Amino acid sequence: ITSTILTWFDFVPRILAMPKYPVNAYSSLPASFPWPASIAPQVGLVLFVLAGCSLVLFRLRYRWLMLFATLAFTQSLAIYWSFFGSASHGSQLPLLALWTLAIFRLGKSMNPGPWIMSLQILIGLMFMSAAYFKWTTSGVYWAAGYEMQRRIFVSYSVDGIAFPFFLPYLMSSTSLATISGIVELLAQSACLPLIVASFVRPKMRFLAGLSAVVAAAGIHLGMNLFCFQFFPLSLVLLVPLKKQEQPTRANLQTLGFAAIVALCIATAFYPKGNLSRKVFPLTYYPMYSTSGYPLKVVRLRTTNYEALGPIQKEFFHHFGKHPLDEHTIQFAQAHGVAPEKLITVSYTLKSFRENPTSLSSSPAETKENQKQ
Q1: Among 101, 371, 73, residue whose Cα is nearest residue 253
Q2: Considering 40, 169, 185, 249, which has the largest number of Cβ atoms within 10 A of its Cβ?
Q3: What distance, in Å, lies between the first and last C-alpha atoms of the chain?
Q4: Residue 140 phi, psi dihedral angles, 5° rounding
Q5: Does residue 281 have a cis peptide bond before it, meaning omega lies within 30 degrees of 0?
Q6: What is the pLDDT of residues 91-113, one digit of tens each?
Q7: pLDDT mean over 308-317
Q8: For residue 348, which phi and psi values (nearest 5 degrees)?
Q9: What single-letter DSSP state applies at residue 221?
């Protein structure tokens, strides 16, 4: 529930701007009910609010309340992602966890074992999928210090917001960047095997939880994704499965958990195509698995960024790397950003390594620095 509520709050600025999104950008996801494009954003906003209210009331023992919250939240996010060419991975795992909770609440069995086990496997699958694509796409080279610095630069340059205190150290030392890359790759790779091992040796759950927290921190801080919702889910790995809680026989509830896990396995390692739209809320997790990120990027900036509200700042977080074309201008207007104040600014990895704060410089300051 905590993870889902954090996800809900993460989407608040986006969902509030959604009713003003351009209708011509709407292409319904398979998981979304085929609402007419003219009313889909308003329906999504209403369902989003209802889902939030239902999540707050989760302690009420109404068996159907959690199912309603799950359906409403899934549908609202499906409508939101229908405006884009792909669906981000940050919301899928909390949604799947919410589905398992809804199934548990609907079932007659009060044995939490199958539910906890399925949830732990889903968490491990996410990190194993991320590790799989890193190993198969870039291999050990993924953790190379210079490659890590290029990823960090490209990711943090999107909106140029404040960065963690340790980032300048990673950017000034390829050795530290390499170490951080190796730790992240090993943490993602080890999570699922440690989870499976904890089913036999319960004390292994502490190592599984540690690897998940480290992997989540790497995604959260290193890649500028700020997925707070992964941390509460990582703590689920610390919950031990007692012998009397382990699944003993199949029932509809257990079959529901097994179906979700099986579907996740089917998509988590699919190597080709953009599945994020087709199978939402299922997904796979490439998560910056490639190498060779650019040394120079062009980003959207405005001169009054600090004075903007949350909905306006959200535009830069999701559209800062887009070209300043008519499509982007429509989304800027939906977020309340004045298109005439948008300009494109170039940033280089070299300048970022020398001065990490250069990404948050105003356009005027950046141009002055470039002249110097």
Answers
A1: 101
A2: 40
A3: 52
A4: -60, -25
A5: yes
A6: 888 999 999 999 988 876 667 88
A7: 90
A8: -120, 155
A9: I
